[in-house]
Amino acid sequence: MREEIIELERKYVAPTYVRPPFVLDHGEHSTLYDTDGKAYLDMVAGIAVNALGYSDPEVVRTIQTQALKLIHVSNLYHTAPNARLARLLCETSFADKVFFCNSGAEANEGALKFARKWARVKHGEGKTAVLAFTGAFHGRLFGSLAMTPREKYQAPFRPLMPGVRFARFNDLADAEEQAGDDLCAIFAEPIQGEGGIHPATPEFLAGLRDIADRHNALLVFDEVQCGMGRTGYLWAHQFYGVEPDILTAAKPLAGGFPMGAVLMTDEVASTIEPGDHASTFAAGPLVSSVAEVVVGRISDPTFLAAVRKKGEFLGNLLVKLREHNPHVLEVRGRGLMWGLELDVEAKQVVEKGYEQGLLVISAGPNVLRLVPPLVVTEEELARAVRIIEGILSE
Hints:
Aspartate Aminotransferase, domain 2; 14 helices; 394 residues; Aspartate Aminotransferase, domain 1; 7-stranded mixed β-sheet; alpha/beta
């Protein structure tokens, strides 16, 4: 079966991914199983998506119950799960309003549109520039790609959206230099994910808030990967005590179903009119019902405290690994979002992990990334680090 499925994909699926030579079949908690029955301890969680792991009983029951009632009707009509989820997100954040979409890239595209509309309504024409940062990853659509300064991602698809300037991440002086009165928004990740797991400093985020205010621009936090409990706080910026005007969320929001969201203040929402933006599939009854469960579970203070405790446990293990293994140059992260900067290619460790029943991913050529399900146990975290240690020693 494995060879047949891989051959089907090779023949019929556009070649945008490089996949390992096994086929995943099912999962439970923090473990995945392939079609040959081999188990893999999962430190990827579908790229920081499966926060509640696999086959969560409450998620499964919710899917079954809602699927029997209503799956999709489009955004032409009211549905209760959509409204309840919007309320829950606003009540657990800084936001007053939510726009729903289907992915992180879509959320960032929506945030770009809303920022430019706000700037035009509030400050007139010509205020369209966007400030983003080195190491950023905001998506692969045309606006979000324009804010993702990676030559290999951008080069084949130029010209991209104009008007984006870049400053060095965690460099306030450079951000100030790149800012100006034509700025409509500053986009930043509180912890950069794809860029190598780089946390922002408290001074940096506070300084960006000040720059945005002085230049009459919006501060947008991209929490697609670092948000929704990943850092041990429901929203990563809450650790810093700095509030944005807009926040983008996605990956773990609906337990594996495609969902993105743009959270915003009333100041921003007041400039949006019917027809300014739309999405056929966004926040349908099924996906919203699941997201209600996910947000409700993760926002519980006891759940978040457990993530912080496990994150501290994992961080300590990784620091000890760095002390004993010369291949580990630096350890960075918070909560259950960690990166190991190596002096070897991270993909070597990823590929060896497959052989030993461990799923990990990279965040750049030399950074090994660990973003396990938030329900992972300390024993599973310790086992994952032992496997990584063995691979690096080898």
